Amino acid sequence: MADNTVTALANRLLTRVDKLLQQASPFHVFPDGRLNNKLLEKARLRLWADWQAIIVVPTGSTVLANKIAEIELSRVAVTIALAIVSPFQVDWDVERFADRVKVSHPFRANPEHRKKLAKYVAISSFGCISEPATFVDQYGKILAWYLPQILDLVNKGIVTLAPVLDQPGPKSQAWRSQGYIIPPDSTEFGIGRVTLCPGGFMQWQERLQDNLYQSTTLSSPVVQDWLCEMTATKQFWSAITRVVAPDQYHAGMESVSSLNSVTPYHRDPGASASMYDLLVSLGKGHKAILDIPDLGAELVYEAGAMVFICGRVLEHGVPFWGDGERVVIAHFMKDKVHERLGVPRPSFPSQKDFLDKVGAGKKGGLKAIQRGGGDGRRGRRGKRGGLKAI
């Protein structure tokens, strides 16, 4: 039943994204088999105007309503469509880049590694970005999706978790359990971390013959109440994942909720190169920045932003967030769990598969899932640059 709901939402979202992309340009952006950057820029400006208009419209919904409003679907569709036509391209191949990077403990990371890496690959400098965008490698594989201001009014459901997050619990040396900062004012959301894993290995027991276990926190009545309240919202996030990364959706994710902590720079050791982390930024009153040094990009990471990032490949961190309270729901995958279950690694989403939909000259549309004013540059630094034909 849950999968049918996600499928229905994903198809509705796909239809809207498809229509927006087709209407964004009177001509197909690959008129002669090569990407026409002028046509792409015109499509971006049109969708930017649509995005500016819709983000100021309140959705009027709450997580407790347990349903997704039409305005929410429209807001997400415009944000995804604008990200598709707003690509930043690096000059390296993600798979070869992944072979060179090293995964180390976040608090023991060697700063010299970045300097050594720069000798082999050209590190871009895209600067501060506050509007929807995608980041692609030289062959058009999508490394990250940046979807700011895509969410609205999810915080009420997070408050439910405060009793679990504020419990002292056992001491842990895991880096995700460190770095918490108590705000000077009273906290609304709590301070701490809770992991919700439907199936994973115990630490140091990751052989194929080892058993998989659920997180003990899943049996908590408070957590069960929160999951119930968040049902429609989580299904909506799954539908978004199914649109931007269908292979990732089918592979599945586990989730971590973390509140009021800094995130040290790191790469995620448990994933494969093509696996996205889904990061959902919530909270209130904070000015967090998601820094991605490998892209030379700083993403405005305020409440309401959603980011899909190849966390095994791209170093990332949140060094500060200023005032307010910061909440993040991080969804991530474990490659060894997938190997244990016989699940293949997801492929990288291809930029061309999405850009092919831009312009009325495209025959057909997005494949349905079967059931089972300004110049649009405000808030940006750096140069997008022309894209190569793929």
Note down, in words, how this protein is organized.
With 390 residues, the chain is α+β, with helices and mostly antiparallel strands. Helix content is 30%, strand content 16%. The chain is built from 12 helices and 13 strands. It has an 8-stranded mixed beta sheet, covered by helices on one side. A 3-stranded mixed beta sheet has the order 2-10-9, with no helix packed on it. A hairpin with a 4-residue loop joins β9 (289-292) and β10 (297-300). α1 (2-23) packs across α3 (70-84), α1 packs across α9 and α2 (37-54) packs antiparallel against α3. The two termini are 39 Å apart. The model is unreliable at 362-383 (pLDDT under 50).
Looking at this protein, list some descriptive labels.
390 residues, alpha+beta, eight-stranded mixed sheet, three-stranded mixed sheet, 13 strands, 30% helix
